[in-house]
Amino acid sequence: MARTLYICYFGVREPLVQTQVLPYLRELRKPGVETRSGDEGAWDGTEVSLLTFEPKRAAEDVEEFVTLRAAFAAEGIEWDWLPYHKRPSAVATAWDVFRGAWFIWRRIGRYDVLHGRVHVPTLMGALARRFSRRQPKLLFDIRGFFPEEFVDAGTWPEGGWLFRAAKRVEKWLLRKADGFVVLTEKARQILFPESTETGFDKEGRPVEVIPCCVDLDQRFSGESIELRRTVRKELEIEDRYVIIHVGALGGLYLSKEIADLLAAARKKNPSTFALFLTQSDPVNIEPLLAERGFGADDYFISKVPPDEIEGYLCASDVGLSIVKASFATLSRSPTKIPEYLACGLPIIANSGVGDVDELVQLKCVGALVTEFSDEAYPRALAEVETLGDVSERCREVARQEFDLEAVGGERYRRLYRKLVDL
After folding, report:
1. Which helix (H) or strand (E) holds 272?
2. Please, are residues 54 and 82 in contact by the beta-carbon 8 Å criterion?
């Protein structure tokens, strides 16, 4: 049985950790699952440890963490945490990298795989291994083109020293890692084109494309009719045409363009209601809606727990995914898209982001906004209408392309088997 340390530069209470990281770790623990790809050999599962970085260490947090640690242990997941430091940004991150590498180095003999989620955690694992006689496999779970994303979001200046430093680190990690995960076929073609046919890069290291997946059995149970009625009644939108956006606003997530599309929808159908589930400040979208004629009864903006998202999705008619299209976002697999599909929602998305174009066009589960213009928005809205009732098709596509166990879990297990056999 392989032993892995999953290194994550987020706090355990973050929604992303709850909906993405922990479900994948539970899948990794599963033994004896054969893959549908025909690979030989049974798999005994993986002993899983998790390292996170927590932003606060108040007494009440430590008390909660002790309870969480016991709950994870009952599932077979060992959890440790270190404090997260935020400012000054570069210095704080460097300090966290040092602390993380030191923590891992002291325990490195316990692991067969060091699994880094994105660049910073992978750097911690690589540094710990660099100064150790023990050489566990290093898995670089790339997730996205992180340096370019920071430039696109306006966090770093293009060509600045932070960007150049991050690219040097990225280049080193690409040399040192023993295996890779990317989120999209486009990212695979950019970084590891030779792996498209073989599953291995030119140096014989395994590469897997694992999009952001959803748990179709637990988080999205399919009880959509009752959930739809309940949430629509609570929000008093029983007769409204509901368009939903899930996730962040601002930066890469184009608030103005979202507001423009919603305005076009309202012009086409005055009953349009805008629903936002976001942790971002409402100021990112509320003034834009008001400028376009939306009254207080025409929208709802809220932060909700992960286990309540399904109800709001089931109460909606269309899901939005409007993200800045760039080189960086070719590597993106928006989590909201499989969530929409799992709840039977067709998608309106802009083109040029990850593998979304192919998904929408080939699977006929939505419409693409090919440009941000007053002409393009009505076209996309009309195209969604021509699809008719595609709820079942959307759910089936979610199961085929984004199922946590059959897609995400299977591919992670397959990758781990290849890693430990190297």
Report:
1. strand 272-277
2. yes
